[in-house]
């Protein structure tokens, strides 16, 4: 009896040991390569190389050169949260898997030639322009540029202030398109004098390069500007409101205003489209950054940012990257209600919801994610002499496309 009990105990013990060993090996095999790498690499993030505590995202190029999985691209967090879809042709969803390894390897390669410049852009008026409108676009989006030129992006005097405009472009990623567009983009540049073209591939993940190159360009060729609006081509901007706002500010002081997003978290789920590995960004929260279509900055801030961004490692999300530059110079971006561009009923939704009211847009500064026709319609409705928004609380009349569209076309024909 005692022998059998002893035998049972030994047997149980043996089985337990086997089970534990099995579990141990199993677990070790389950840990993905990347995670092992992360735990190995983590200490170096706080090592001496990163003595500047304000730039913890600065990583040595060698840090993430281990072979790793190809991951699908990152979208802006805000857009994810709002279940929004990128409308530009740069939509990362259609890109192939994003190669973090390649990105980190090449991120020191951050100076590209300016293929088309507008050196006299800001020298046309004696004191320099009051506002420079800088719009991110891609070569293929000619129709968007055209509508912006004819609506909110008009150059010249608005409410007595001088406005100038530039479009920020890279080279098309589709080489077939490039061949045909090379001549056209030069023509367009000669005609409108508003094209800035840099020699890097115009992809979603290269928007950070666009940010850096634009700030450098502005510091060099447009230092006499008072304020800058930088935004996407799919927004509607109420320039009059922006001027009104800016006239109450001093261009020689710090100013950075937009739809500021606070405490956004990098997504660590490897399978997520919005994944950012810890080797690329080690902190749990992004610095405050401007999202949603556009932001305003003073001349003074532009110069400071242009210098600061040179010292920040490239990061594939341009909005966040600029947030990092802001943090580096200890500048707190200001949230403005006029940039609260989400949850607004757009004209396209109006036929069903019957709530479109141009007066509603009158108080806004930037409206995000609009189609070409919507930008045109919005601008014309708002500039129609028949528009009267005197009553604060208007009785909302059902939206009628035909009637209003006709009125506005008579009122202010598109040139
Ligand atoms: C590149 O553009 C050409 C012409 O517009 C188009 O036919 C082709 O499918 C495009 N290629 C890719 C990879 O998008
Ligand atoms: C950015 O542009 C460079 C230069 O054209 C190109 O080599 C690189 O692949 C692009 N990077 C991304 C992430 O698209």
Based on the model shown, name its key terms:
disordered C terminus, binds 2-acetamido-2-deoxy-beta-D-glucopyranose, 415 residues, alpha/beta, 9-stranded mixed β-sheet, Spore Coat Polysaccharide Biosynthesis Protein SpsA, Chain A, 38% helix, two-stranded antiparallel sheet
Which spans have pLDDT < 50 for at least 5 consecutive residues?
A: 27-96, 349-355, 392-415
What's the overall average pLDDT, rounded?
75
Briefly note the CATH topology name of the domain at 114-335.
Answer: Spore Coat Polysaccharide Biosynthesis Protein SpsA, Chain A
Summing up helix and strand content along with how strands pair, one would put the structural category as alpha/beta
CATH class of the domain at 114-335: Alpha Beta
Strand content: 5-15%
How many DSSP E strands?
11
**Number of helices, counting only DSSP H or I runs of 4 residues or more:** 14
Which hetero ligands occur in this complex?
A: 2-acetamido-2-deoxy-beta-D-glucopyranose
The CA-CA distance between the termini, in Å, is 104 Å
Q: Share of helix among residues?
A: 25-40%
Task: Using the 3D structure, state the CATH architecture of the domain at 114-335.
Answer: Alpha-Beta Complex
The run of helices and strands is: HHHHEEHEEHEHEEHEEHHEHHEHH
Query: Could you give a short account of the major beta sheet?
Result: 9 strands, mixed
**What Rg, in angstroms, do the CA atoms define?**
26 Å
The shape is globular
What does this entry look like structurally?
With 415 residues, the chain is of the alpha/beta class. Among the domains are: 45-105, no CATH class; 114-335, Spore Coat Polysaccharide Biosynthesis Protein SpsA, Chain A. 38% of the residues lie in helices and 14% in strands. It has 14 helices and eleven strands. Strands 1, 2, 3, 4, 5, 6, 8, 9 and 10 form a nine-stranded mixed beta sheet that branches. Strands 7-11 form a two-stranded antiparallel sheet. Helix 7 packs across helix 10. The longest helix has 29 residues, at 2-30. The chain is globular, with a radius of gyration of 26 Å.
């Amino acid at each position: 009896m005692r022998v059998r009990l002893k035998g049972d105990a030994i047997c149980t013990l043996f089985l337990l040991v086997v089970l534990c060993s099995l579990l141990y090996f199993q677990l070790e095999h389950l840990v993905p390569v990347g995670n092992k790498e992360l735990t190995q690499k983590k200490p170096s993030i706080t090592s001496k190389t990163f003595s500047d505590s304000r730039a913890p995202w600065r990583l040595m190029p060698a840090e993430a050169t281990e072979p790793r999985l190809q991951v699908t691209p990152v979208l802006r967090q805000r857009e994810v949260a709002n279940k929004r879809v990128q409308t530009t042709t740069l939509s990362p969803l259609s890109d192939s898997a994003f190669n973090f390894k390649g990105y980190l390897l090449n991120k020191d390669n951050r100076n590209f030639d300016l293929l088309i410049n507008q050196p006299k852009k800001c020298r046309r008026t004696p004191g320099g322009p009051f506002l420079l409108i800088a719009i991110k676009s891609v070569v293929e989006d000619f129709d968007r540029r055209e509508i912006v030129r004819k609506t909110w992006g008009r150059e010249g005097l608005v409410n007595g202030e001088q406005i100038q405009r530039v479009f920020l472009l890279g080279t098309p990623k589709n080489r077939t398109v490039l061949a045909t567009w090379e001549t056209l983009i030069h023509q367009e540049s000669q005609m409108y004098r508003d094209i800035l073209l840099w020699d890097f591939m115009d992809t979603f993940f290269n928007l950070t390069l666009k940010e850096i190159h634009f700030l450098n360009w502005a510091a060099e060729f447009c230092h006499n500007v008072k304020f800058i609006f930088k935004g996407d081509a799919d927004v509607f901007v109420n320039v009059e409101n922006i001027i009104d706002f800016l006239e109450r500010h001093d261009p020689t002081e710090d100013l950075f205003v937009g739809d500021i997003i606070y405490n956004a978290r990098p997504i660590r789920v490897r399978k997520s489209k919005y994944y950012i590995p810890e080797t690329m960004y080690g902190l749990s929260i992004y610095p405050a950054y401007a999202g949603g279509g556009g932001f305003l900055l003073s001349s003074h801030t532009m110069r400071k940012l242009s210098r600061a961004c040179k010292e920040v490692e490239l990061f594939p999300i341009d909005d966040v990257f600029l947030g990092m530059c802001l943090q580096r110079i200890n500048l707190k971006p200001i949230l403005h209600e006029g940039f609260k561009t989400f949850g607004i009923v757009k004209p396209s939704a109006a036929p069903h919801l019957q709530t479109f009211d141009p007066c509603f847009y009158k108080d806004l500064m930037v409206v995000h994610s609009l189609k070409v026709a919507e930008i045109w319609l919005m601008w014309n409705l708002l500039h129609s002499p028949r528009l009267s928004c005197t009553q604060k609380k208007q009785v909302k009349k059902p939206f009628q496309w035909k009637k209003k569209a006709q009125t506005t076309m008579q009122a202010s024909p598109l040139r």
